[in-house]
Amino acid sequence: EFTVVAEAPSGSETVTRYREHRPDVTLLDLRMPEGGGLRALREIRSFAPEARLLLLSSYGVEEDVYQSMRAGAAGYLLKDVDRDELVAAIRHVHAGKLWVTGNITAMLAERAPRPDLTTREIDVLRLLARGLICREIGKVLAISESTVRHHTIHLFAKLEVTDRTEAASFALQRGIIQLDDLAPDAAGSRPRSALGS
What we know:
- The protein has a three-stranded parallel β-sheet, sandwiched between helices.
- The protein is mostly helical and 197 residues long.
- It has nine helices and three strands; from the N terminus they run H-E-H-E-H-E-H-H-H-H-H-H.
- It starts with 10 loop residues before the first helix and ends in a 23-residue tail after the last helix.
């Protein structure tokens, strides 16, 4: 009773295929090349706010779930979901309802009270997690050491942690940063999101 109208291997191509086919329900892989599912979701919702988008992921990470639902996903499923639940979720979303299971609801309830980190706070957090000190972070981000300390104080307060180790551990567990954020990229130790900022 379902017809697959298109498939796409990347986030950018997903947006193109959506524009071409305007499917009733779109299944998005959270982690795919060229922006991933969350970026594709946001872009699709920008020109098609009525789009019914269901996110699939290998990870039930709190921050991923929160950001997906906040961006307008109609549901979030883990890839190991059984066939019956996947079919039920597609039908539910097609009917214009949200598909949120008990464990996802619990994650969202736990996450909701914590304020969002700014892009710059996340940049600082990534570099703190790599082991850089405030002076080094300031050089990488082209900001003063006191500004780095200011961001650090704010992100510690938002995460409700007391030191860099606790902050890094919390951020990794909740999906705020990823393991690959901890390895210096080809450009050195500058975080990808800080380039051009």
